[in-house]
Amino acid sequence: MLLSKEEEHDPHYEPVIRLTDKDQVEVKTHEEDEDVKFKMRAKLFRFDTGSNEWKERGTGDVRLLGHKATGKIRLVMRRDKTFKVCANHAITPEMNLQPNIGSDRSWVWKALADMAEGVPTAETLAIRFANADNANQFKQAFEDAQNTNKEIASSARPETVETSSTDPAGPSASTAKEVTDKENARKEEAEADKEAVTEPVTSGDDSK
């Protein structure tokens, strides 16, 4: 069989730099010391108080991860393809899964210290599954995790009950509330100082 000139031309180029095992960078996800207790595909939303509407955070696998040493369980969800974290928080006893109005496959709950953005942030989250059966499986696993974490906290010494600030899931709810209160106080003080030195606003077109 005769080949055309295009088919015969098969150039081979040697790489300019060859990478060895030493050159490879190990990526840490902070999940190396955890076991997957639950995993299911879903879509996550967060409530934006500024615009007063739900905004999509991403679609991917929501997972409940149990720490191999402490036994504590947290919720972690990463977006498809990019693997960017869209939810990351400890599962605490005060969290309450509420059914989303008009849906049997969606749940809503509040997290006082979600670490998806790298800092503890109070969020109202909603998650939607493919069907009601999947949603109920998630609810059961979520509540089981709550009971597990509650038992661990009650059996721990008082000084070790609080979640460390270096924990992948971030600080505990009480610690997060203290941080939030301090941050709000700081913002109010800054706003007061700003108003004290700001000139009076003259009337004009607010649309500009």
Number of helices: 3
Distance between the termini: 73 Å
* Whole-number mean pLDDT: 79
Strand share of the residues?
25-35%
CA radius of gyration is: 24 Å
User: What is the chain-wise order of helices and strands?
Assistant: HEEEEEEEHH
Poorly predicted regions are 159-166, 192-208
Biggest sheet statistics:
7 strands, antiparallel
Number of strands: 7
The coarse overall form would be globular
Helical fraction equals: 25-40%
Briefly note the structural class of the backbone.
alpha+beta
- The strand line-up of the biggest sheet is 4-3-2-1-7-6-5
Q: Can you describe this structure?
A:
The protein has 208 residues and is α+β, with helices and mostly antiparallel strands. It is 25% helix and 29% strand. The protein has three helices and seven strands, in the order αβββββββαα. Strands 4-3-2-1-7-6-5 form a seven-stranded antiparallel beta sheet. The termini are far apart.
